[in-house]
Amino acid sequence: MKWRAVVLTTGLVLGLAAAPAQAGQPDEGEAVIVDSTRHGGRTLALTFDDGPNPVDTPRLLDVLRKHHVKAVFCLWGDFVDEHPKLVRAIVAGGHKLCNHTMHHDNMGTWTPEQIKADLEETNAAIHRAVPGVPIKYFRAPYGSWGQTPQVAAELGMTSIGWRLVISDWEPPGTDELVRRVMEGVTEGAVVLMHDGPNDRGQTVDAVDQVIPRLRADGWRFDLPARR
Ligand SMILES: [Zn+2]
């Protein structure tokens, strides 16, 4: 128990969390960054950041529904406030929610108090859109984790990283995105893609193509593990 207070101030939390063998059993406040699926093996988890976006999120939801895939949406609080209906559509589609902070700030140097205030504000925005919906995951903008995993854990959220990123924020063409997924996927990978904040049409098209191809290769779609 005591070391947790220490790691809060030293920022060594990730180093400690990387040695789960020492932990023995899961600890309530343990700040792990998960980058693997619940079931492992030939599975992957699709995660979409920086939405909701009024153009691409509805299209993406249609694609995921068509293929019967559930994903995780890491929501940007400002856009949650702008598009609460889209948050309701995401939840109605059976997908899981992830807190991606209120304004997409780099929190690498923020104090736990500052982080907590932002994450709670973001969860409140999501709950204004969908009262009571579970928010099980957190992802730090820019992968700049700082002390966020510890705070997220205290708020009951698992921090999710990724094992595959396809750099779709600089759209290289749908075919190239498809190639990056098919060649980059590894067993149990959490995959990072984007449905916002601006045009992500290529990502949606790529998702539509890779799902049946991955399934044909024996892959199954899973969710990220929870610590
Ligand atoms: Zn982001």
Automatic annotation (TrEMBL):
Matches recorded under InterPro entries: Glyco_hydro/deAcase_b/a-brl, NODB_dom, Polysacc_deacetylase_ArnD
Name by which UniProt lists this protein: Peptidoglycan/xylan/chitin deacetylase (PgdA/CDA1 family)
PROSITE patterns recorded: NODB
UniProt xrefs under CDD domains: CE4_NodB_like_6s_7s
Residue ranges that the Swiss-Prot or TrEMBL entry lists as coiled coil: none
UniProt key word Hydrolase: yes
Record GO terms (molecular function): hydrolase activity, acting on carbon-nitrogen (but not peptide) bonds; metal ion binding
One of the GO biological process terms: carbohydrate metabolic process
Domain NodB homology: 42-222
GO cellular component, one term: membrane
Keywords, ordered alphabetically: Hydrolase, Metal-binding, Signal
Signal peptide: 1-23
